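Troubleshooting log. The previous structure file for this entry was overwritten by mistake, so regenerating from the original sequence record. Sequence copied from the archived sheet and checked twice against the printout by T.R.
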Amino acid sequence: MRELYSQRTSAEYLDRAAKVIPAGVYGHQGPAEGCFIPVQAFPKFSSRAQGTYFWDVDGNRFIDYMCAYGPNILGYNDPDVDAAAAEQRAICDCVTAPHTKMIEFAELLVDTVACADWAFFAKNGNDATSGAILCARAHTHRKKIVFFKGYYHGVSAWTQKIDYPGILPEDVANNLYVDWNDFDALSEVFDRNRGEIAAVIAQPYMHGNFADNILPAPDFWQKVRKLCTDEGTVLIVDDVRAGFRLDLAGSDHYFGFEADLICFCKALANGYNVSALCGKEFLKNAMSSLTYTGSYWLSAVPFAAGIACIRKMKEMNLPALLREKGLKLTQGLQDRAAKHGFDLHVSGEPALFYLRLADDPSLMLHQQWIANCVLRGVYFTNHHNHFINAALSDEDIEETLDIADEAFAAL
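Regenerated output below.
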């Protein structure tokens, strides 16, 4: 059995951070949102990263299945992406007039993404989803937006819930909610709000937190596509999390339909700070009409990194590679669980999988197993889906399975 990691220095840094930063580490990557239970099992700060690993401030090495919550698609410090970024940085980055790398990046996305006639760049996934909503409302002159329950589309007020701190009723007054995969319920919502729905926004499949992930039912997306077309409603796919992991042409292409607008971030540039909203030609004028920009949205270095990242993903046939690695890992985890008499549920796509130990409805047993993995060097989180990256080797997978085996035995 491996010696359990000590994280004394990490805890000291969290105490120091909490004095000057709200929550110490905020958002998904901090301990306040429920994906780090028990809190003391998880490192709070990293010291360095390479390939599929990161090291915390106590010197512990982790095989990282969160991949910085998605941006690490090729491996930390990928030499080709970093070289392209360095070459561009030596020329210019954030400049009064944007560099022509922006055009090159947009052309590559239009050539790569099946539904894309144009690309608009920002910095975060939230920028892309918010831009998509603004574009849909500008085009349709309608207010209402349909969401599928269990969604996550960012942190702007329009995508929050009424009981969240700081959210006003009017922020979400035009939001409509239906259950995932329930096309009849969606049709009823359209019947009750005829001519008022600007957009339907959805992830390509339900990959939310704290619940098993659910793939689309047969023909679900095709029926949604037809309904939106018939009703003059814009269909938005939030591909921020899954984008390029299932299909380089977009996750809508993977599931056999075309979005009107599709949102990318995370895997777009292997950790360099850029997001993209891509769309159909008929929405181009509406997008260009928006007052919507940011101080660093046209920085050239992330564009160069994104170009290198997409080209390398194409060369590697990355979605097939991630699927192969993900299947090997998740099937191995289920085998190790069964060996010890546990029922490990794996859901979602292999490149973006969700784990749930189903032997205890309180989820405490699952949290204990995850903590035992983390304390031995495999970085899972409790209630979020996990990511595969191209740098993950067969040896890393075998080490993960050995650690998972020890963690099951520890239960």
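The first strand starts at residue 46 and ends at 50. Archived copy saved in two places this time.
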